[in-house]
Amino acid sequence: MLREEELKTFVDGTTRYFEVAAQQPASIGSPYLLEGEPAMHDYTGMINVSGKREGVVYFTAPRAMLTVLLMKMQESDFSHESMRDLVGEVANTISGNARRDFGHDFVISVPSVFAGEKPQINRPTGARAFVIPIHWRSHSAKLVVSLT
Amino acid sequence: MDTAQDTGTRRTVKLLIVDDSNIVRRRIERSQQFDDLEVVGTAANGIEALELARRTDPDLVTMDLTMPQMDGIECITQLVRLKPEVRILVISALADKATAVEAMERGANGFLNKPFTDRQLNEAIAELMY
């Protein structure tokens, strides 16, 4: 079961991503336990975790936030495909960085990306899901972590 | 590699960029600041990378690890067999030491974690090629 202190890995990873990739750190709100289905934003990038731990990590964000993030990354392509690419890459980077603390047996999948449709999220039975609120510039997004 | 000091001319360094993210591929292409470095191809997985390496004969490959179809570790193994002289810079989100060690054991020459700054990218390339 994911312990609250382990959330720090994902909070730090999220902070680092925005600080380095967008040269502007995000403000991270207090994580809370997810009850029911989370509100998804326009685009969601999801990583399945297997190995020593099992579960999912997903990053969901509105199109407006992703557009500004792409601009900050000097991108000029703001297409649907770029948005999909970006949410997948954010989820992949934060999850991959988590191996610094969780180790080599924290095995991550390539990202699955959802846009517009309801994501099929297979949270492990009985595992708690934590929502990490992300505030960046005037936008809000979420990182959701559910691990055994 | 030949340098301006010892030959009077500088040979072009051929770069192949391998990453399943278009955004990351473009970012690497845009951020590298070496006049003599020419991007000869980009690939979204290991299979494409091997095919392009055969055709373009790169001097340097930037290699993601988590990719569909063929991941970076397998690609490094095959690439080193195909072109033993190629230099490989892994650019990956996987931040554990064991992964870096495994990549180096398979034949990678450098390792850079995502996310990365332009400066970190250029320093990593310079360390391998100049």
Describe the structure.
The complex is a heterodimer of chains A (148) and B (130). Chain A is an alpha+beta fold and 148 residues long. Chain A has a single domain (4-147), classed as CheC-like (Chemotaxis protein chec). Chain A has helices at residues 7-21, 63-72, 80-97, 99-102; strands spanning 27-28, 32-33, 43-51, 55-61, 106-108, 112-115, 129-136, 139-147. The model of chain A has no long low-confidence stretch (mean pLDDT 93). By secondary structure, chain B is α/β, with parallel strands linked by helices. Chain B has a single domain, classed as 3-Layer(aba) Sandwich (Rossmann fold). Chain B has helices at 4-7, 22-31, 46-56, 72-82, 97-106, 118-129; strands at residues 13-18, 37-43, 60-63, 87-92, 110-113. Chain B has a five-stranded parallel sheet with strand order 2-1-3-4-5, sandwiched between helices. Chain B is globular. Chain A binds chain B through residues 16-17, 20-21, 70, 73-75, 77, 81-82, 85-86, 88-89, 92-100, 102-104, 106, 108-110, and chain B through 20-24, 26-27, 30, 66-68, 92-96, 98-99, 113-117.
